[in-house]
Each structure stands twice: as C-alpha cells, then as structure tokens.
C-alpha cells in the first residue's frame, strides 16, 4: 500500500486539471462578505492596511524577521553592523523587481539570489540575508513573473527555481522558446501540438463568453515556464493543465505563506488610458493596480460588478468570477 502511495498522489495531481480549465467559472456565489470584506470604504483619516495584509506582516515581523536580522547582521563580527545598536527598532524592508520580460525576470532572480541567505556564497560575502528580512516582495511585468514563480512554487531559492532541482522543480526551461519551443520549423508536430493546447485553453475561456486577447496566449505560454505543472517530459502533451489551475489568490494556501517565511507578495500593474492601444511611456496619472495574494479576489468581484459586458450575461451582484486568470495573462 505504502509503495503505491507516491504513484497515486502523482496520478491525482496530474489528473487534477486539463487545459480547458482555463475558462473561469462565471456564475459562482460570492464568498461571505462578512468574513471577507471585499470592498473597503475609507476616508483619508481611516486608511489602513487590508486586515489580511496587516496580520501577515504582523506575524512575519514578530515570528520570522527578528531572527533573520540576527542571522544576517549579527553582532558586527561579520558585516560591520551591530544589531544591538538598532535598539529593537528594525526597518521595514520591501524589495521591488521591475519589468522588461525575460530579461527582468532573470536579472531579478540573479539579484535575489545574491541577497538570499540560502546562497552560501552570498551569505559569506554579507549580502545574503537581505531577502530574509524583507517584509514585502513586489514585482511588475517581467519582475512579476519571477515573483509569481517564487510564490507559486512555495518559495524555493532563486537558483533552484530557475535551474530546477531534478525532482519536483523542473526549472524555467528557458532553452525552450516561448513561441516555437521545438525549433524554427513551424510545421513541426511538437510546435503544432503546443499551439493547439494553448489555443484550446484560450478558446475555452472565450466559449465562457469572457473576452480574450493576445495576452491570454502570452500568459499561457509563460505558464509552461514559470509555473510547476510543466516538465520536459510533458511539455508537448495535454496530460496536465500546464498551470491553468494555479492562481495568485491561492498563494495563501502554500506552506511558506502559512509559516510567513516568504515576504508578502504584491504585483503592480500600470494601466493605459482608455482607448489607447499603444504602450509608450505611460502617463503618471494612469491608475496603478496593486494585487496582493489575499486581496486579489476582491478585484474579480469589482471587475464583475463594474463590467457591462458581464452584466450583459445576466449575472447579478451576488455572482462572482472564480478562477479569473489575471496573474500572468494580463501584461503585467
Ligand atoms: C559576536 O559573535 C561572535 C561570532 O558569532 C562571537 O564569537 C562573539 O563572542 C560575539 N560577541 C558578542 C559581544 O556577543
Ligand atoms: C532604546 O529603546 C528603549 C525602549 O524603547 C528606549 O527607552 C531607549 O531610549 C532607546 N535608546 C536609544 C539609544 O535610542
Ligand atoms: C549565489 O548568487 C550568485 C549571484 O546571483 C550566483 O551567481 C550563484 O550561482 C548563487 N549560488 C548558488 C549556490 O545558488
Ligand atoms: C506546484 O506548486 C503548488 C503550490 O506550491 C503545489 O500545491 C503543487 O503540488 C505543485 N505541483 C507540482 C506538480 O509540483
Ligand atoms: C468552443 O466552442 C466551439 C463552438 O461551439 C467548439 O467547436 C469548440 O470545441 C469549443 N472549444 C473548447 C475548447 O471548448
Ligand atoms: C491538446 O488538445 C488540443 C485540443 O484537442 C489539440 O488541438 C492539441 O493538439 C493537443 N495538444 C497536444 C500536445 O496533444
């Protein structure tokens, strides 16, 4: 019995999602608003952190971060600071990883690796440790691919994430091209099967009457690399959902969130003026969205209640969009 267990677990994970699960559930009941306030009202005097963000930070800053400071800075014997002189007043640190596609994701991973106490070289040089004392890790665009990949893989070290560990983590597999993974021959069977899988996902979403765009195709392609359901062995198959079931809002379920060992994750997304199709320098008055893992579901509700498109589907205010794939499908 015990011998069969790993196989059964693997089989149930593999069977959990299919590529067409990319379609959101559009008429699900909303969560109990009394337990989980979706829309906050505030005045300039009453602004406060979202309760879940506040309680995560409180727990991380009392249970995890003091020991991490002590481990990093110590008593000045190694890197020239003395924690005792901080007099118990530790600065709150946030790290933000900027954008620019794969380049930003890889550059960000290299920098985070150099700040990570789990990297022995970085630790001995004195930079490794800053990552562990950070309260926040934010990302935008390519930086959000890195942030999401770290969080949705349960906070491995950046080098394990990027190169894989030969076991559960298969790495980013950056040698497999995003557009034509099996080479420049567009008629190649593997390329064709790959595009067929991506198209089927996006078509399933379109069939649920949700608008789709080129960012859906792009986001699906990225999921093969940054999420953990794709390996070299299943890359050209439909035996897994290739990340369709992994949601930004599920990060709180991961063990590294439960014990507050990861910094609080935030993704920032800029918006373009209504009607604009180009992406030049975005003007400073464009709305900037901030999506943290526990607060993101409220955005789905907001998006729903304000969208005339969804109203035209006959959905009332008590219906929510579940599993709305916004994570890396939007160009963030
Ligand atoms: C500082 O740390 C070093 C190395 O851990 C230790 O040998 C030394 O006794 C410590 N000094 C004080 C004053 O705590
Ligand atoms: C250190 O903190 C204590 C308690 O908060 C305070 O009484 C003391 O003045 C502080 N010392 C310095 C040097 O800031
Ligand atoms: C430590 O970080 C540096 C800088 O990113 C990187 O070159 C090196 O490979 C890392 N070492 C390990 C063991 O991850
Ligand atoms: C992928 O990561 C998620 C979140 O940490 C985890 O629940 C899941 O088991 C992982 N899946 C695989 C195939 O490793
Ligand atoms: C989407 O709907 C079309 C038309 O009904 C159907 O042919 C197609 O198979 C559907 N695609 C998916 C992925 O469900
Ligand atoms: C996955 O299924 C879709 C829809 O049936 C098909 O077009 C595509 O070729 C399949 N991909 C693979 C890798 O088998």
From TrEMBL:
One of its GO terms (molecular function) is phospholipase A2 activity. Keywords: Glycoprotein, Hydrolase, Lipid degradation, Lipid metabolism, Signal. InterPro entries: Acyl_Trfase/lysoPLipase (IPR016035), LysoPLipase_cat_dom (IPR002642). Belongs to the lysophospholipase family. SUPFAM superfamilies: FabD/lysophospholipase-like (SSF52151). Residues 1-15 form the signal peptide. It comes from Boletus reticuloceps. It is an enzyme of class 3 (hydrolase). Pfam families: PLA2_B. It catalyses: a 1-acyl-sn-glycero-3-phosphocholine + H2O = sn-glycerol 3-phosphocholine + a fatty acid + H(+). Residues 29-332 form the PLA2c domain. One of its GO terms (cellular component) is cytosol. This is Lysophospholipase. GO terms for biological process: glycerophospholipid catabolic process. Its EC number is 3.1.1.5.
């Amino acid at each position: 019995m015990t011998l069969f267990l790993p196989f059964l677990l693997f089989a149930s994970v593999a069977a959990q999602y299919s590529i067409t699960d990319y379609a959101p559930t559009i008429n699900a009941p909303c969560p109990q608003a009394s337990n989980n306030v979706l829309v906050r009202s505030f005045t300039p005097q009453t602004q406060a952190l979202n309760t879940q963000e506040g309680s995560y930070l409180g727990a991380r800053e009392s249970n995890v971060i003091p020991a991490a400071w002590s481990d990093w800075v110590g008593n000045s014997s190694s890197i020239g600071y003395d924690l005792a002189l901080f007099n118990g007043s530790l600065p709150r640190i946030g790290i933000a990883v900027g954008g620019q596609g794969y380049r930003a994701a890889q550059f960000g991973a290299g920098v985070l690796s150099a700040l990570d106490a789990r990297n022995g070289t970085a630790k001995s040089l004195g930079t490794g440790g800053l990552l562990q004392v950070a309260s926040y890790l934010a990302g935008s665009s390519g930086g959000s691919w890195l942030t999401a990949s770290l969080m949705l893989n349960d906070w491995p070290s950046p080098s394990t994430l990027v190169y894989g560990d030969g076991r559960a983590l298969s790495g980013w597999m950056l040698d497999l091209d995003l557009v034509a993974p099996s080479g420049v021959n567009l008629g190649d069977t593997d390329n064709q099967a790959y595009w067929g899988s991506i198209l089927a996902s996006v078509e399933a979403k379109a069939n649920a009457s949700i608008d789709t765009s080129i960012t859906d195709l792009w986001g699906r392609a990225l999921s093969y690399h940054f999420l953990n359901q794709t390996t070299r062995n299943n890359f050209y198959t439909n035996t897994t959902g290739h990340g369709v079931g992994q949601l930004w809002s599920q990060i709180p379920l991961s063990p590294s969130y439960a014990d507050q060992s990861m910094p609080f994750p935030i993704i920032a997304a800029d918006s373009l003026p209504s009607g604009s199709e180009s992406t030049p320098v975005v003007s400073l008055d464009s709305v900037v969205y901030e999506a943290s893992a526990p607060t993101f579901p409220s955005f789905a509700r907001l998006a729903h209640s304000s969208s005339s498109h969804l109203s035209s589907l006959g959905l009332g205010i008590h219906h929510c969009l579940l599993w709305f794939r916004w994570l890396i499908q939007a160009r963030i």
